[in-house]
């Protein structure tokens, strides 16, 4: 753990072992250069501190790309296995205590393995620093549905780049992970006449997908060599690496999963194989900015949809153009853009007081 933290460029890691359940809790605050850190709480067996560190960095990039005054953070609760409801709720409340003690330096919301009901539980102890709860004055905000909007826009931009038309009709999409975001995205793709293949390691989730007319199933271990137009990772991170990239038989990769690249240099492998990669933090920012917009900035859901559509369309188009001009990968172009925005924020902060939640362009 020490060497992990030593080689990380973030600001703060909070670690707590929960003696009652044996779970580990990690809160990683990667950057507060743009504002208080914000990121979901992931609850998973086999999760680790390194997940929290890398996911928090992804959140920094996401908010910087969107010019939102939020920093990057993430919470990961690594559980020993399946838990009874009471034990799980107790654990979530103790996580909430930890979030509360940070006094607003870190805000959280749902992610893999957590729901709106779980946010209610965390909020019991964390107070106001929790979004995505079941009931709020602004109504229930489904960050997964908002995320799917941005990914849907990105898939059309990607089709425009590789086929010369944004239409997804008749194109094939392999969606890895039929969870909250994957299901919402498949719904949009089906309505638009796309050909869809789905893979999910959870047999129940896979059956649910297969019940949809026109959706085919792919075994999880066959995903990488299955031919498709666009591979759409919507499960966990690290799926694009030195072992999987050589096997891919697609024109592009664009999906919701956070931290799809095993390492930043894997984007160059995709580029060398002429596979167009839409960086995850550019296209999956819908939940982050839509959630913040609706819960804290008075946006309606319709306005959130417009803002997400506009941000993803404009940014991804610009990133692809910059990558082409530099003959580099879109990931490098997007990281440059995020870093520029962080530096702009540093210089304007040096010049005067910071607005905490400001949406600037
Ligand atoms: P989820 O937990 O609802 O769904 C994930 C699905 O992936 C599950 O059905 C699971 O069985 C499946 N899965 C896990 N490992 C798999 C594998 N190796 N192959 C195939 N399927 C596998 O999670 P959710 O919320 O849909 O998130 C999906 C991804 O999108 C995550 O990486 C998350 O961090 C990211 N994301 C989620 C946002 C949200 O608001 N929910 C926002 C932005 C990104
Ligand atoms: N977990 C989602 C993401 O990674 C949505 C989210 C964003 C939740 C910000 C809380 C805070 O973008």
Question: Explain this structure to me?
Answer:
This protein has 361 residues and is of the alpha/beta class. It is built from 12 helices and 12 strands. The protein has helices at 2-6, 49-65, 85-101, 116-126, 143-163, 180-191, 203-210, 266-272, 280-283, 286-296, 301-326, 330-351; strands at 12-17, 24-31, 37-38, 41-45, 71-79, 106-107, 172-176, 195-199, 215-217, 230-233, 252-253, 276-277. Helix 5 (143-163) crosses helix 10 (286-296). The chain is globular and about 50 Å long. 1,4-dihydronicotinamide adenine dinucleotide binds next to helix 5 and helix 6.
Give the helix/strand layout:
Blueprint: H1 2-6, E1 12-17, E2 24-31, E3 37-38, E4 41-45, H2 49-65, E5 71-79, H3 85-101, E6 106-107, H4 116-126, H5 143-163, E7 172-176, H6 180-191, E8 195-199, H7 203-210, E9 215-217, E10 230-233, E11 252-253, H8 266-272, E12 276-277, H9 280-283, H10 286-296, H11 301-326, H12 330-351
Parallel strand pairs: 3-5, 3-6, 4-5, 7-8, 7-10, 8-9, 10-11, 11-12
Antiparallel strand pairs: 1-2, 2-5
This protein binds 1,4-dihydronicotinamide adenine dinucleotide and phenylalanine.
Phenylalanine binds next to helix 10.
Number of strands: 12
Multimerization status: single chain
Could you tell me the mean pLDDT?
93
- The tally of helices reads 12
Helix content: 40-55%
Order of helices and strands: HEEEEHEHEHHEHEHEEEHEHHHH
Name the shape in a single word: globular
| Ligands and ions found | 1,4-dihydronicotinamide adenine dinucleotide, phenylalanine
Low-confidence stretches: 353-361
The first-to-last residue Cα distance is 38 Å
Radius of gyration: 19 Å
Strand content: 5-15%
Structural class: alpha/beta
Largest sheet properties: 6 strands, mixed
